[in-house]
Write a sequence for this structure.
């Protein structure tokens, strides 16, 4: 009887074809998955935008990026971040009822609350990070030793710009203590009328993925530690735009330091995402926009200040 079978050459050809097809299809599958993750991320930011504007509609001011004094939503003057304040507007009223405004966020019931993960605060493209069990101190918060890891976040309020680091990029110094801020900053009480550059032109929340783990160009730096952004409840996570060089080695320093990049070079307190080519940003009017990571730092600075008076309509971002 004759037996019909593949020859070795035929098998090798088939294997080679499968390998080629896999090489072609796998990147396409990865792109589709990342596109879906990016869409989920943008939906998270849209929900946060709705919540922030509902807070403003209720209290007639936007939430502060972090409170240290008596203010709207912080009647006892404790250290409180912006995310606990908007919990009722993201369908987390039960969590907000547990959170105590008479305690700093790292004390008692509040610390227990901070160990819970809230999905809308997390970007699906961000990698899993080591459990945050022993964050280093950020005075007045002491170092903490925990039995349960803190719930993390990949989104943060951007305070504005750091004039000393951004003005050197400009032909003439523009930013100072009166016009450097965005909408949500420390102890702020910003109203719609205060956003003179326009709510559709002013970024209020950016991605800052992976904290408190430290990344440089999406490469984990296991020997570096961050004392900010340790939890979604953290009041010290918000930051100003400084810029950094391509390798993310320094923060700020202007053109002399090569700090020409506004995002995705370092994640310790600068805009940073794990999406290829750019990052999602939330504007004060509630819309979300994906901005290219090669955006000119001068343009991004104009977008994160609410009263700089810059003309940016002719620039691409």
């Amino acid at each position: 009887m004759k037996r019909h079978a593949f020859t070795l050459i035929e098998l090798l050809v088939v294997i080679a074809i499968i390998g080629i097809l896999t090489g072609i299809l796998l990147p396409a599958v990865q792109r589709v998955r990342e596109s879906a993750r990016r869409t989920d991320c943008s939906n998270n930011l849209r929900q946060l935008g709705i919540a922030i504007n509902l807070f403003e509609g209720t209290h007639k001011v936007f939430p502060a990026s972090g409170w240290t004094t008596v203010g709207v939503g912080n009647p006892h003057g404790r250290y409180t971040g912006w995310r606990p304040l908007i919990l009722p507007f993201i369908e987390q009223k039960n969590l907000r009822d547990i959170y105590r405004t008479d305690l700093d966020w790292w004390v008692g019931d509040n610390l227990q609350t901070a160990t819970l993960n809230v999905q809308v605060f997390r970007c699906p493209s961000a990698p899993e990070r080591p459990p945050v069990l022993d964050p280093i101190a950020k005075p007045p918060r002491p170092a903490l030793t925990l039995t349960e890891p803190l719930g993390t976040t990949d989104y943060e309020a951007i305070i504005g710009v750091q004039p000393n680091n951004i003005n050197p990029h400009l032909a003439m110094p523009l930013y100072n203590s009166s016009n450097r801020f965005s909408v949500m900053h420390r102890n702020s009480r910003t109203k719609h009328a205060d956003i003179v550059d326009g709510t559709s032109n002013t970024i209020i929340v950016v991605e800052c993925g992976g904290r408190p783990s430290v990344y440089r160009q999406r490469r984990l730096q296991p020997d570096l530690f961050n004392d900010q952004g340790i939890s979604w409840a953290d009041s010290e996570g918000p930051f100003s735009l400084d810029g950094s060089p391509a390798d993310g080695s320094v923060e700020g320093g202007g053109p002399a330091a090569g700090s020409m990049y506004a995002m995705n070079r370092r994640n310790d307190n600068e805009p940073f995402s794990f999406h290829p080519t750019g990052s999602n940003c939330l504007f004060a009017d509630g819309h979300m926009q994906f901005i290219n990571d090669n955006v000119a730092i001068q343009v991004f600075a104009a977008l994160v200040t609410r009263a700089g008076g810059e003309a940016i309509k002719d620039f691409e971002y």
The radius of gyration is 22 Å. The first strand starts at residue 66 and ends at 67.
